[in-house]
Fold this protein.
Amino acid sequence: MYVLVVGGGTVGYYLSRDLLDRGHEVTLIEKDGRRADWLETQLGSIVMRGDGCEVKFLSQTGIERADAIVAVTADDEDNLIALQMAKRHFNVKKTIARVNNPSNVEIFKTLGVDDAVSATEILLGALEPPITT
Amino acid sequence: MKILIVGCGRVGSQIAADMDRTGHDVTIIDRDPAQFSRASQRGVLTNDFKGNQVVGNGTDAEVLRRAGVEEADGFVAVTEGDNRNIMASQIAKHVFKVPRVVARIYDPERAEAYEKLGLHTICPTIDGAKRIEKTLMEK
């Protein structure tokens, strides 16, 4: 599988590392130059410096042949726009977002994102196990 | 009309003041409370402003709901962030079904892309550049 990861924070770094370990092809997109340099020392030449919301930049990432794109920056709005661009411009089959605000899980799906994951929601679920009768 | 404006910068506060003066029911949202006092210091949002000021994130559906998005006839997104404006506008249009939604997008490419997707976009980069070129060549 060829996966694009947008955002090289902690989540993006570990996600990319584990995808590589499992034998997938990955391109990790990071906007900040210094962070991108550090990521490259850890993960090698799979890192590209640029803005994952810009169509021109995305077109240089091999996005046309990507099986999936995962947007995991800390900003929900940036994740949404990157995935909408990927879907509408490049027809990427699977778009997955990390969302910080749990209410954005449903909103992102309404706005065309295939799947949205909220850590907050997962933690809430872990704290409040469903009542079994 | 009931109007919701996200972003209390120069443009947002100007729209808020103008529409309030012409009898519309205006609510303006900004995540930074200092933006309201700045607008007031500039003489734009003065004491005679009858609308509401809401402190909060305009891309948060709950904040929008509190600000009355469900009854809004018009929605304007003019924060400094293109992506924030796009997201807020899409929530207004597709989740809350606000009839008239306008987003300011500085990046011409992004503006064109979302215009094609049915969002009403204003791109000050292109509009401003054209106006300046025109004025320069006139005379």
About this structure: Chain A touches chain B through 20 residues (CB under 8 Å).
